[in-house]
UniProtKB/TrEMBL annotation:
Residues 445-691 form the DUF7840 domain. It comes from the Bacteria. Residues 201-359 form the Lnb N-terminal periplasmic domain. This is Uncharacterized protein. Residues 108-184 form the DUF7843 domain.
Length: 692
């Protein structure tokens, strides 16, 4: 979900240590299998390189911090400040600052203190009794002062109190967020301590600025599995200008020698460490807007100056910390939520985002909680080019000269209205469906007249062609594990288990076609033929268990099979996008050539084949959407007993429509007709969908 991000040049690092993390939380093996299988099947045009982040401070920022530190180091003289605690006894048995044990216990149990140590806060068991674990998610000994600090928040608190009382500059300046928490609470008791002055941290924080913190959402990448679920990072403003703002990005540090399939599985299992990447925002934004062709949404958060400063203190503490990165639940999105929860102990955004955390849901939940106070749309080069194409459509002009121009020619184009991909307006991605279906066969001799069944479906993520498209990249189609069960006459059966399914359309007659250009030549006033952008192919990949009809047999009962399929072809949009926007038209049609195999209780136990899929998706601006597809597969299996059954065609026509009641409720109707050997199968299903 926040897998690999754009690569930063390897420069001076801010890491102070590199201890291996021994604890790794296991994850569901079947999810790992799904990602491994899908990655392994990726075709060349689909498997774009996944750049890696180094997790290091960029060269510009590193040099500036170093210079500022040298300039300000003389200002930090801790021997010149008085310490009212110095007159207090500091024996081995006395508590720091003569605090009572009850006070120390209360501070150790404080939500903020526990969150600073990556420890869970209090929860309730089934009986409603408060339960709490004191095991930190981190086990790097250099992150703790006490030998047992990763398991004992009280021992770690006492160690930190002693460091404050003794004015241990090395500790206080390495852990400024914890030091601030201690000093703030001591001040509430009337105990004043010298103001913390750390030249290196102050220079680092001043360079980043402190005039506001924003959540930045980069929309889904249509052609890279690594970025298909979008990405989020933070922007720290210095003086209100994006030119001086800084991007803070929590990402994964993979082994560069691992294949993409290995990398996907290891990120699922937490086998890689997460790193904090810090660089100029302008460079980070350029990677998305110009290189990837992905729009950005910038959401200004309502943190006050004190909260922002404490967020920066904590980032400074953990920027070199090695901790496991999980693709699904300890990722770029959860890190931002954790930072907000840290400075607002009464909030618990982490609990609201669920077990599988997706970037778009972070923006939606923050908006619901009133944390977002303003938003800014930053269109990509592809969106600007599409806006120019839409304008040409409106004026009745020929769009072909525009399609032939490189994206760089459109960077000065203004987009009057934002696209419909505002993540704060997205629907939840988890989906539950309840409904009924009927299956009917024309061959009454081999089948019952009809079979009515109850249906329940569950989907974990992310988006299909009929889902509400608000807050998502247009025509994005990506589904992770989903399941459909049916019950009839007391029997329950598995109708479909989708492990992974994706289609990327890259419509050829639009700017959103993932075009590549021959950079050997440099475009002048006129674009040379060799420099004409070449649109990418539409493509698809599918790995699932599904029920199919075997058209090689008259007794073609539905069989549950493993279906593996790859697709490649072309797509085009019909009509024009909304005026003043860089959006596509509301209708997309495609022609895909597919090939694959099915294994299961079929004639000979398998079949392989290929064929043509022709279809259209209709996504108007209103509450309903529709699709239709005609599949013409040709299947083959070797049959010594009956050569006439070796090769056969099995056409299928599928249609569907969905009407949105609201952002969380919808009614979906689907149906299909499939022709087999002397038989026709018809299915119709209706479901009430709930998104949560």
């Amino acid at each position: 979900m926040c897998y690999f991000t754009k690569k930063s040049p390897k420069t001076a690092t801010t890491k102070a240590h590199a201890k291996p993390i021994s604890a790794r939380t296991p994850f569901l093996p079947w999810v790992g299998v799904a990602v491994w299988s899908s990655c392994a099947l990726m075709s060349a045009q689909a498997a774009l390189p996944s750049p890696f982040s180094t997790g290091e401070l960029s060269a510009d920022l590193a040099q500036a911090v170093s210079a500022a530190s040298q300039m300000n180091i003389s200002q930090a003289n801790f021997n010149d400040v008085s310490n009212p605690a110095n007159d207090m006894p500091n024996t081995e048995n006395a508590t720091p600052f003569s605090l009572s044990q009850a006070q120390i216990d209360a501070w150790a149990a404080h939500t903020t203190w526990r969150r600073l140590l990556f420890m869970p806060t209090a929860d309730k068991d089934k009986a409603g009794k408060a339960v709490i674990s004191s095991i930190s998610q981190q086990d790097d000994p250099e992150f703790f002062l006490a030998p047992n600090g990763s398991q004992d928040p009280t021992a770690e608190l006492i160690a930190m109190l002693k460091a404050v009382q003794n004015q241990d500059e090395a500790v206080l300046c390495r852990l400024p967020a914890r030091a601030h928490f201690i000093q703030e609470n001591l001040q509430k008791l009337g105990i004043n301590t010298p103001e913390l002055a750390c030249a290196e941290f102050d220079a680092w924080a001043d360079l980043l600025g402190g005039h506001g913190l924003s959540l930045v959402f980069a929309e889904e990448h249509g052609n890279s599995l690594a970025s298909a679920f979008a990405h989020v990072f933070m922007r720290v403003d210095k003086d209100g200008s994006t030119d001086t703002a800084t991007a803070i990005n929590y990402t994964v540090a993979p082994n560069r020698r691992d294949s993409q399939a290995e990398g996907a599985i290891k990120s699922m299992l937490g086998s890689y460490d997460g790193v904090m990447e810090i660089m100029p925002f302008a460079k980070k934004a350029s990677d998305y807007l110009h290189t990837d062709g992905r729009d950005l949404w910038v959401y200004r958060l309502n943190l006050n100056d004190d909260e922002l400063r404490q967020v920066l203190r904590h980032i400074y503490e953990v920027q070199s910390l090695q901790r496991p990165y999980f693709f699904t639940h300890d990722n770029c999105a959860t890190e931002i939520v954790r930072l907000i929860d840290l400075v607002r102990p009464d909030e618990n955004l982490r609990k609201q985002v669920g077990k599988i955390v997706i970037p778009s849901q972070i923006a939606r939940i923050m908006d619901q909680e009133g944390i977002i106070i303003s938003r800014e749309f930053m269109p990509s080069d592809t969106t600007k080019k599409q806006a120019a194409i839409n304008k040409a459509y409106t004026n009745g002009e020929d769009i072909r000269p525009l399609l032939a121009q490189p994206l760089a020619n459109f960077r000065d184009v203004s987009v009057a209205r934002p696209s419909n991909n505002d993540a704060a307006k997205s629907s939840p991605v988890y989906r539950l469906g309840l409904g009924a279906g009927v299956t009917d066969f024309a061959d009454k001799a081999h089948h019952q007249p009809s079979n009515t069944k109850a249906i329940i479906s569950v989907r974990s993520a992310y988006q299909d062609a009929l889902d509400r498209p608000a807050g998502v990249r247009q025509f994005h189609a990506l589904s992770l594990p989903s399941m459909t069960l049916s019950a009839s006459d007391g029997d329950v059966s598995l109708d479909e288990l989708t492990i992974f399914s994706v289609r990327s359309y890259n419509p050829a007659n639009t700017a959103k076609n993932n075009a590549t250009i021959n950079t050997a030549n440099t475009a002048k006033t006129a674009t040379p033929a060799d420099d004409k952008p070449k649109s990418a192919s539409a493509w698809g990949q599918h790995l699932r268990l599904m029920r199919v009809m075997d058209a090689s047999s008259a007794a073609n009962d539905n069989h549950l099979v493993l279906d593996v399929r790859l697709e490649k072809g072309k797509s085009w949009t019909l009509g024009q996008g909304a005026a003043g926007t860089g959006m596509l038209g509301d209708t997309l049609c495609y022609a895909l050539i597919g090939y694959g195999a099915q294994l299961g209780k079929l004639n000979q136990g398998y079949r392989v084949g290929g064929g043509l899929d022709l279809g259209c998706v209709y996504q108007p601006a209103g509450r309903w959407r529709a699709l239709g597809e005609l599949s013409l597969p040709v299947w083959y299996h070797h049959d010594k007993a009956d050569v006439s059954r070796d090769l056969y065609v099995q056409p299928k026509l599928s249609v569907g429509a969905q009407f949105d009641i609201n952002a969380r409720q919808a009614l979906r109707m689907t149906g299909d007709v499939e022709w087999g050997k002397g038989d026709t199968q018809q299915q119709l299903m209706a479901q009430w969908l709930t998104y949560f």
